[in-house]
Design goal:
Number of domains of chain A: 2
Largest interface: A-B, 14 and 15 residues
Strand order of the largest sheet of chain A: 2-1-3-4
Mean pLDDT of chain A: 90
Distance between the termini of chain B: 59 Å
Strand content of chain A: 5-15%
Helix content of chain B: 25-40%
Strand order of the largest sheet of chain B: 15-14-27-26-25-16-17
Largest sheet of chain B: 7 strands, mixed
CATH topology of the largest domain in chain B: Rossmann fold
Shape of chain B: globular
Oligomer: heterodimer
Radius of gyration of chain B: 28 Å
CATH topology of the largest domain in chain A: Arc Repressor Mutant, subunit A
Order of helices and strands of chain A: HHHHEHHEEEHH
CATH superfamily of the largest domain in chain A: NADH-quinone oxidoreductase subunit E
CATH class of the largest domain in chain B: Alpha Beta
Number of strands of chain A: 4
Helix content of chain A: 25-40%
Number of helices of chain A: 8
Number of strands of chain B: 36
Strand content of chain B: 15-25%
Low-confidence stretches of chain A: none
Structural class of chain A: alpha+beta
Number of helices of chain B: 27
CATH class of the largest domain in chain A: Mainly Alpha
C-alpha cells in the first residue's frame, strides 16, 4: 500500500535514464515496486505512472499481463510446485498435496503467518530434475516430501540463505555508471543509425 | 482527399472484378469503396488499424498463392487477387464469429445494442446458426460504471480495442486499458480512477457490441422504435450529428462523420445535452406579470401563464410606448447567438428594419467586434490543419470549450506535420503537443504578436522569453499560418487581441478562424445581430442604402453594444430590452451592471427555453423552440452553412424564434414578409453580400455544408463587405509586482443553463478555485486547498486555491460560472486587464 520510497525513487530515476523513452522503464520499475513491498501496490502503480508519464490504467494494463507481478499481498516465500507432465509422472501432484497439508492452505493461498504462498505452476523448464519446485523463483530439484519439510524448516529458521524475500530479483543491484550508458536517444530525434547497423547513406551509395 | 492520379492507382481484382484502389489504401476500405462490404469489428476509418478481431479475414493472393489475411491491415498492392466470398473466407468468418461468441452472453433481449448491433447483424449474416459451446462462460459483474455517464458490461465485450484506441489515440486520455491476460482479458479503468474523459461518449457510439452503454440512453428505447434525421449541432464547430427520437422526444445524439468538421466525434456536453430538451422546467407557455391569483394584471409581482395573443400584445405595446417616448434608441436587443441563422436574420430585420434600433448585440461583452471578425480572411479547419501549415492559438482552451476542434488539432499535431504556437495566457489541454508555448501575459498579447511577426525576438516581451519568441517565429516561418482567435479570458479586454490580429494580418500567408463562444455566433455576426452591421458582413454605412431599399428603413447611426445598452438602461435612456436566449445576470462579465440595468428597464421581454435568472425577472416571457425543435441553417466558425433539422415538436406552445419575431412585427403593424425559414433564407440569399449564391437547396444537399462567401461573383452588385483596418493599439498596462494578473476562463462543465438541466452532467461542474504557479503560491504562503482572499481594485472574493504548474508565473486563473465565488465581481470592464492580490485567510 505504498508509493516508492525516496531511495527507490533515486534508483527509479537512474533506471529511467537508461531508456530513450521513460515509458520503456515501466517493467523494471514495477519490479522495483515489487521488491519494495513484496507485491505491486495500487499506490506504487500510480507512483510509477507519474514517474514515467503514463496513466495508472496503462501501468495496470502492463502489470496485470504478467502473472509474476503480484497485485495483492503474498507470503514472504512464494512456492511454485510444478504439476506439468514430467513432474506429474514423478509425483508432482502428490508433492503439491503434501505441501498443502503441511502448510494448511490450498494452492493459491497464503499461510496465516504470512510466510508462505503455495502456487500450482505449469512447466518451469526443469523436466530432467522432476519433480521440482521454486521458492521465490529459486529452484529445488528432485523434491521428496521430506525435502519439502526440510525446506520449510530451513526457510522458517532463516537457513535458506539463497532465497531472498519475495520480490527481490537479485541480491546484487546492477549499477551502470553514467559514462557507461549507451547515450540512447528517442528514434525520432536520432541523427545516425546505431553502430551495429549499416550506415543508411552507405547502403544507398552501394 | 484529392482525386487519384494514374500513379496513385493500384489495380486490384475483387471477386473477379478489377477495381481501382488508391496507393496505400487498406484492402477493406478499397473493397467498401467499390461496393464489396467486408465484415469487421475493430476497424474504424478514423483510427489506426490493429487487426484485433480477425473478422475481416479474406482470401488474398498477392503473388505467392492464396491465403487468409486480415484486410484491415493489408495495403493494396498491384495485381492483388481477393476473394471475399470463397468457401475458405466464409469458413474463416464463421469460425471467427464462433470464437467471438464463446464468452459472449447472448443477452440480446435485454441489451440496448440489440437491433443495431454489428455483432448481432454479422452473426446473422456470416456466422454459425448454432453454438457448439457447452462450457461455462466467463462471468463479470454487470454492468459497472466506468465514468459518470458510461457503463461497461465486460461479459459482452469482444476486445476489439476500439474504445481503448479511441481513448489513447484520439482523445489522449488513456484511462481505460486492457487488463489481465488470455481468456481473462478485460477492458477496465484503474481502481478509483474513472474514465473521466470529455469525449467518453464517443466510445459508446463506436462500440460494436453492447459492452459500453451511456446512462442517458440506457433502456430508453429500442433502435427500431427510433426515428432519425441528420442535422447539425449548434456549437461553433457546427458538428454534424444524427438526432434520434421516439414518441416525440429526443433520446440520443450520435456524431456523423463529416470530413470537414467533426469526423464523427462529439464532446459529452453536446452529446448528452438533449436531456435538457425534455426537462420539466422548460418554458412551455408565454408568461407575463400578474397577481398571485394568476390574473395578468399590468403591475403584478408574479409571472403568470397567459396566451400568445396577450403576451405578444404586451411586448408590442411596450415597444410602441418606448418608441413614442424615447425613439428607437430606447429599445435594445441582447442575445440571439443561439438562434438559427434564419431566425437571426428575421430578428435583425425586426430590430433594424422595423423598430429601427441599432442597439443589437449577440455578444455579451465576451467576444470580438463584428467589424473585425467578419472582415478577416477565413480558412477552413481542414486546410488550417493540412500538413506543412502552422496554427496560432489565441482562444479559450479548445479542450474545454471546443472539443471536436481539439480532437482535430490533436490529430494534426500527432499525425500531421503542423506547428502549433500558443499565445493564449495559459497552456491548453494540448499540453506537450504544442510546438511553442508563448503564453502572453494578459494585456500584452498584441505586443507579443508584433514581436513575433516583426522578428524582434531578442528581448522578453509580455512575459514571453526571447527563446520562445524565436521558436514561435521559426515555427511560423515559411508556412501557411491560420490564427484561431477568440477571447481566452474575459478579464482581458478585446483591444490587445485585436492588436495581435492586426500584427498577424501582416504575415505573408495568413488566414483566420474566429472562434467565439455560443453556438451560432458566426451566424449572428453575419446576420448583423451586432451594432453597426447589417446582414451579409456589411456595415451600416456601406449597406445602408441597399437595405433601406429592401426593408424600408435602417438605423442611421451605429448603436450600443451590450455594455452600452445596460448603461443606457441604468441612466434611463433605454427603457425596453429584448433578451434573445441571453442571461446577462449570469453571463455578462459585469454582473452588477447587468443587474442594475435589467432592474432599471421599464420592460424586459425574454425569449428563451428556460427560466434563467434574467428571464425570471422579465416582464414578458416568450417560450422558444430548442435544438431539434425547429429547422434552419447553422453557420460555423469557418462560415460553413449546414442544415439544422426539426425532429420533435416544441413543448407546450413554444414557438420557433423566427416566428416569434414575425408575430411581434405583426403586432407592431408591420409585415416582415417571411412565412417560413425557407422564405427567410431566400431573402438572405437575395440580399446579403456574403451569402450570394448559397441557396437553401445547395446547403441541404451538401454533406459537408457550404462555405460562404461563395467563390463566384454572384454578389458583385451588392454592397461591399467590411474590410479589416487596424485600430489604434491598446496601451500596455504596466505590471504590478505585488499582484497577479487575472485570467477568467471557461471549463466544459459549468453552471450553464443547459449543463445544469442535464441530469448526467449537472454534478460534474466543480467549485471555482484560483490556480497559480506553485512558486507564486509558495511566495504567498498558499498551500493546496487553502481558502484565500482575492482582491482587485473593485471587489474581493474568497475561494480555495490550487497550485498548478500549467499557469505561468505572475498570473492567476479563476474559471467563470462555477459554483462558489463569482470571479466577475473582480473584473472592471473599463480597464484592459485586471490585477488581483491574493492573501491567505
Amino acid at each position: 500500500m505504498s508509493r516508492l520510497s525516496p531511495e527507490n525513487v533515486t534508483i527509479a530515476e537512474e533506471i529511467i535514464a537508461r531508456y530513450p523513452r521513460p515509458k520503456s522503464a515501466l517493467i523494471p520499475l514495477l519490479h522495483l515496486a515489487q521488491e519494495q513491498d513484496g507485491h505491486v501496490a495500487d499506490d506504487a502503480m500510480t507512483h510509477v505512472a507519474e514517474l514515467v508519464g503514463v496513466t495508472p490504467a496503462e501501468v495496470l494494463g502492463t502489470c496485470s499481463f504478467y502473472e509474476m507481478f503480484k497485485r495483492h499481498e503474498v507470503g514472504t516465500y512464494v512456492v511454485n510446485v510444478c504439476t506439468n507432465i514430467s513432474c506429474q509422472l514423478l509425483g508432482g501432484e502428490e508433492l503439491l498435496h503434501h505441501a498443502e497439508t503441511v502448510l494448511g492452505v490450498k494452492a493459491g493461498g497464503t499461510t496465516d503467518d504470512g510466510l508462505f504462498t503455495i502456487e500450482d505452476v505449469e512447466c518451469i523448464a526443469a523436466c530432467t530434475e522432476a519433480p521440482c519446485l521454486q521458492v521465490n523463483y529459486r529452484y529445488r530439484y528432485h523434491v521428496t516430501n521430506d525435502d519439502f519439510d526440510q525446506l520449510v524448516d530451513d526457510l522458517r529458521a532463516g537457513r535458506a540463505t539463497d532465497v531472498p524475500e519475495h520480490g527481490v530479483l537479485a541480491t546484487v543491484r546492477q549499477r551502470i555508471a553514467g559514462d557507461r550508458l549507451a547515450g540512447v536517444v528517442p528514434p525520432e530525434v536520432a541523427t545516425e543509425a546505431p553502430v551495429w547497423l549499416p550506415d543508411p547513406a552507405e547502403e544507398r551509395a552501394r | 482527399m484529392t482525386a487519384p492520379t494514374d500513379a496513385d492507382v493500384v489495380p486490384v481484382t475483387v471477386n473477379g472484378v478489377e477495381v481501382e484502389a488508391n496507393a496505400g489504401e487498406l484492402l477493406i476500405d478499397a473493397c467498401e469503396r467499390n461496393g464489396v462490404y467486408i465484415p469487421r469489428f475493430c476497424h474504424h476509418p478514423r483510427m489506426k488499424p490493429v487487426g484485433m478481431c480477425r473478422m475481416c479475414l479474406v482470401e488474398v493472393d498477392a503473388g505467392r498463392g492464396a491465403s487468409l489475411q486480415p484486410s484491415c491491415m493489408l495495403p493494396c498492392t498491384p495485381g492483388m487477387i481477393v476473394d471475399t466470398e470463397s468457401d475458405l473466407t466464409k469458413k474463416a468468418q464463421d469460425g471467427v464469429l464462433e470464437f467471438l461468441l464463446i464468452n459472449h452472453p447472448l443477452d440480446c433481449p435485454v441489451c440496448d445494442k440489440g437491433g443495431e448491433c454489428p455483432l448481432q447483424d454479422q452473426t446473422m449474416a456470416y456466422g454459425p446458426g448454432e453454438s457448439r459451446f457447452v462450457e461455462e462462460k466467463r462471468h463479470y459483474e454487470k454492468p459497472i460504471p466506468i465514468s459518470d455517464t458510461v457503463y461497461l458490461d465486460r461479459e459482452r465485450c469482444i476486445l476489439c480495442d476500439r474504445c481503448t484506441r479511441f481513448a489513447s489515440e484520439v482523445a489522449g486520455d488513456p484511462l481505460i486499458h486492457f487488463q489481465d491476460r488470455g481468456s481473462q482479458t478485460q477492458v477496465n479503468t484503474f481502481p478509483d480512477e474513472p474514465f473521466a474523459s470529455y469525449f467518453s461518449g464517443n466510445t459508446v457510439q463506436i462500440c460494436p457490441v453492447g459492452a459500453l452503454t451511456a446512462k442517458p440512453y440506457r433502456f430508453k428505447a429500442r433502435p427500431w422504435d427510433l426515428e432519425e434525421v441528420d442535422s447539425t449541432f449548434p456549437n461553433p464547430m457546427g458538428d454534424r450529428v444524427n438526432v434520434q427520437s421516439s414518441r416525440d422526444r429526443v433520446l440520443r445524439i450520435q456524431g456523423v462523420d463529416s470530413d470537414a468538421t467533426n469526423w464523427g466525434w462529439l464532446t459529452d456536453r453536446d452529446r448528452f445535452s438533449f436531456e435538457a430538451l425534455s426537462h420539466d422546467q422548460r418554458l412551455v407557455t408565454p408568461l407575463v406579470r400578474g397577481d398571485s391569483l394568476g390574473n395578468a394584471t399590468d403591475d403584478g409581482d408574479e409571472l403568470v401563464a397567459t396566451s400568445w395573443a396577450v403576451a405578444v400584445e404586451r411586448a408590442a405595446s411596450a415597444i410602441t410606448a418606448s418608441l413614442e417616448a424615447g425613439g428607437a434608441e430606447s429599445i435594445g436587443v441582447i442575445g440571439g447567438a443561439n438562434l438559427t441563422t434564419e431566425a437571426q436574420y428575421v430578428w435583425a430585420k425586426l430590430a433594424k428594419g422595423v423598430i429601427g434600433t441599432d442597439n443589437v448585440d449577440a455578444q455579451l461583452g465576451d467576444g470580438l467586434p463584428a467589424q473585425v471578425v467578419t472582415a478577416l480572411p477565413r480558412n477552413t479547419i481542414s486546410d488550417a490543419m493540412a500538413p506543412g501549415s502552422a496554427v496560432v492559438l489565441l482562444v479559450d482552451d479548445p479542450k474545454e470549450q471546443f472539443g471536436t476542434l481539439f480532437l482535430r488539432l490533436r490529430h494534426a499535431a500527432v499525425e500531421g506535420d503542423i506547428t502549433i504556437v500558443e499565445l493564449s495566457p495559459i497552456a491548453s489541454g494540448l499540453g506537450s503537443l504544442v510546438t511553442v508555448g508563448a503564453h502572453a501575459r494578459p494585456g500584452d498579447v498584441g505586443a507579443v504578436a508584433r514581436a513575433i511577426v516583426d522578428g524582434r525576438t531578442d528581448v522578453e516581451v509580455g512575459g514571453v522569453e526571447p527563446a520562445e519568441l524565436q521558436a514561435a517565429a521559426a515555427a511560423l516561418a515559411a508556412r501557411a499560418v491560420t490564427v484561431i482567435v477568440g477571447r481566452p479570458s474575459v478579464a482581458e479586454q478585446a483591444g490587445p487581441i485585436i492588436d495581435a490580429i492586426a500584427a498577424f494580418t501582416e504575415l505573408e500567408s495568413v488566414s483566420f478562424l474566429p472562434l467565439l463562444r455560443r453556438g451560432n455566433i458566426s451566424g449572428a455576426l453575419d446576420m448583423g445581430l451586432t451594432p453597426g452591421m447589417l446582414p451579409g458582413r456589411t456595415t451600416l454605412a456601406e449597406g445602408g442604402e441597399w437595405y433601406r431599399a429592401a426593408w424600408g428603413t435602417v438605423p442611421a447611426d451605429s448603436g450600443l453594444d451590450t455594455a452600452g445598452m445596460l448603461e443606457a438602461a441604468v441612466d434611463g435612456s433605454l427603457t425596453t430590452l429584448v433578451l434573445l436566449g441571453a442571461d446577462p445576470l449570469a453571463d455578462f462579465p459585469d454582473a452588477d451592471l447587468a443587474s442594475r440595468g435589467l432592474a432599471a428597464c421599464r420592460t424586459v421581454i425574454a425569449v428563451d427555453i428556460f427560466a434563467s435568472s434574467s428571464v425570471a425577472n422579465a416582464d414578458v416571457v416568450l417560450p422558444a423552440a430548442g435544438f431539434a425543435e425547429g429547422a434552419g441553417t447553422h453557420t460555423n466558425l469557418e462560415g460553413r452553412l449546414s442544415p439544422l433539422m426539426q425532429k420533435v415538436n416544441p413543448p407546450g406552445t413554444a414557438r420557433a424564434d423566427w416566428l416569434i419575431a414575425a408575430e411581434l412585427a405583426w403586432a407592431l403593424r408591420a409585415d416582415l414578409g417571411i412565412e417560413s425559414p425557407e422564405s427567410a433564407w431566400a431573402e438572405i440569399e437575395r440580399l446579403a453580400p456574403s451569402h450570394a449564391g448559397a441557396t437553401v437547396e445547395q446547403v441541404r444537399a451538401a454533406h459537408d455544408g457550404l462555405v460562404i462567401p461563395r467563390p463566384d461573383d454572384a454578389g458583385a452588385d451588392r454592397p461591399a463587405m467590411v474590410s479589416f483596418s487596424a485600430p489604434v493599439p491598446t496601451e500596455i498596462v504596466p505590471v504590478d509586482g505585488y499582484a497577479l494578473r487575472l485570467v477568467a476562463d471557461r471549463r466544459l462543465y459549468d453552471q450553464g443553463t443547459i449543463v445544469q438541466h442535464c441530469a448526467s452532467m449537472a454534478h460534474q461542474s466543480d467549485l471555482a478555485r484560483i490556480s497559480m504557479h506553485p512558486l507564486d503560491a509558495a511566495a504567498l504562503g498558499v498551500r493546496d486547498g487553502d481558502l484565500v482572499r482575492v482582491t482587485s481594485a473593485r471587489a474581493s472574493i474568497e475561494l480555495p486555491a490550487r497550485p498548478d504548474r500549467c499557469v505561468p508565473r505572475g498570473r492567476a486563473v479563476i474559471p467563470l460560472n462555477r459554483a462558489g465565488a463569482d470571479v466577475r465581481a473582480l473584473i472592471d470592464l473599463a480597464t484592459v486587464v485586471t490585477d488581483v492580490r491574493v492573501a491567505t485567510l
